[in-house]
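Notes taken during the Thursday session

The instructor put the following on the board and asked us to keep it in front of us for the whole hour. The protein is Protoheme IX farnesyltransferase. We were told not to look anything up and to reason only from what is written here. First, the residues (301 in total):
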Amino acid sequence: MASTSTASALVHSPRWQQFYQLTKPRVVQLIVFCAAIGMALAVPGLPDLQQAVTMLAGIAGIWLVAGAAAAFNCLIEDGIDARMKRTAWRATAKGELSRPQTLTFSILLCAAGMALLAFYVNLLTMWLTFATFVGYAVVYTVILKPMTPQNIVIGGASGAMPPVLGWAAMRGEVGFEAWLLCLIIFLWTPPHFWALALYRAEDYARAGLPMLPVTHGNDYTRLQIVLYTWVLFAATLLPFLTGMSGWFYLVSAVALGLGFCAYGLRLWRGYSEALARRTFWFSIWHLSLLFAALLIDHYLP
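Then, after some discussion, the predicted structure tokens were revealed:
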């Protein structure tokens, strides 16, 4: 999400910065972080030199393909972005970058990322990452987002894949643990995104997008957030219950989960734009700290 200062800064921004912003760096950073956690958890103990090289190549490849998917999203939604205050600052929305330029940029990023994954990681990771690209850039952006208010629920499957990609990069296969991490992100995505959609409902209505607050109203969306935060809380306990993690993670997951549930309950009982914003930002910290706790727990004796 761009702030007003970011939008102002891009009025006379250099061309490289316009391209860079198309990759949605904040979003991609969280994606890559979750993929890196998946890589670390897939390796017992500290990685050796060979594994470290694979991790670096995997991180770079996933970063490039994720950036390519974000740029393709900006290409497809340039008209929608131009009608929304939240995204009107983008170079594609303002017509400062043409559609052929954006498409070429997306293709080059995707090709570079795929090549890195194919030659320095493994083919399974390459194909899974490409499937994630198609899931977000095509299935979600082109098909689901303009058609159904459940777009973020169904489309969230592609956004939940980073730990699976990371695990596959180090193991050459996808284990139960990786899918468990995928489930957590899958359940985290709706309450995270709906908190944003609540205070951006007018924007989405203006753009003609059937987001849940637009189609079902504010009250219904807040109820869904409450329900999802509690289901998510239960899912975050599974790594401990299955023996994947220890007590440090459990304590962290309980504290973070109860915090997210508390935000959901407060939002359900009394809506305000400020509270919806705080819930959205807390959700980002929730996922980041949850995965950080998994990493720390992995290296504890």
